[in-house]
Amino acid sequence: RHMHKHCRADRFSTAFQDHIMRSLLHPDFSLSDPLRRHSRGKHPQQEEREYVLDPAPPPLTLAQKLGLVASPRERLTEDEWTRVKERSVQQEESAQPCAICREEFQLQPQVLLSCSHVFHRACLQAFERFSGRKRCPLCRREPYETRVINDAARLFRHRCATRIQTYWRGYMARKWYRTIKKTICPKDKRLKRQFFESRLQELNDSFVRYCHTDTEAFLSDIDRSLSSSRRVFQQLERKSVSESQENDWDRIKSQVIQRGVWDCPICLTRRPTVLLSCSHLFHQLCLEAFEAFSGDSRPLCPLCRSAYHKKLI
């Protein structure tokens, strides 16, 4: 009998040790396990489908089979999940912000717990990772099961569609009202006066725009006429400033002698000079430098700004 008690105690001790080792080596986290998250990759056809995230429960340990440790609860059936979701809908969990990050769910992944509370999937994953246990952040129930739902995404899409339709209906109503206001004359005397004032203002503005367009065309015609006149005058000037004859150069030289100025107006020194057809004298190098600097096809005299021919004297 003593041996029987000793064997029974050894069996219980072994069962407890096995249960503790399995609990430490295989913690049951539904969202924090990277291998399970990788194996359950996202597929396009699963975006609107609801499914349970928790894996199949592990086999019972020896301590649980002997009744030394309480066995885990059985997993929820589809009917039980339906009742949990109905309770969550009645509490409007999906219409409220996430209790962890206090932000709207919008289109982000959403999970429903077996206690009918709803959180962001990423928020619950971070909470489980830092707390080290599966405990609901609101009601502290543990352990719990998790299920992916899409109620918040549907509510967000419906809210966005409603807002877009509201803005569109408002835009169309305002556009229709402005059209009616412009085309139909009101019966009130004050409003009728404002109606005709606005119509007259529109006519005046259109007339001003038409006149403005004509003015621009008139100014364009003036610019074209001026450019053609300049071309004619330039041709006449080039024709008048032709190659001077020898008697012309003698007359020009006599004008220089009468003036008595033999210094170059550019460098003010005495060196070989060039006589221009306008009777001004310059050094050859100074005049060539001036012509190169001006860059004009028809250079002008540095003093009188007239076109010229030059002659070395």
UniProtKB/TrEMBL annotation:
InterPro entries linked:
IQ_motif_EF-hand-BS, RNF32, Znf_RING, Znf_RING/FYVE/PHD
Protein's UniProt keywords contain Metal-binding = yes
The family database entries (PROSITE patterns) matched by this protein are listed as: IQ (PS50096), ZF_RING_2 (PS50089)
Q: Which UniProt keywords apply?
A: Metal-binding, Zinc, Zinc-finger
Mind telling me which SMART domains this protein's record contains?
RING
A Pfam family (short name) is zf-RING_2
Quote the Gene3D superfamilies the UniProt record gives: Zinc/RING finger domain, C3HC4 (zinc finger) (3.30.40.10)
Q: Which domain of life is it from?
A: Eukaryota
Chain spans, region Disordered: 31-50
Q: Which residues form the RING-type domain?
A: 98-140, 264-305
Query: Which GO molecular function annotations are given, in alphabetical order?
Result: zinc ion binding
Query: What is the name listed in the Swiss-Prot or TrEMBL entry for this protein?
Result: Ring finger protein 32
Query: From what organism does this protein derive?
Result: Neolamprologus brichardi (Fairy cichlid)
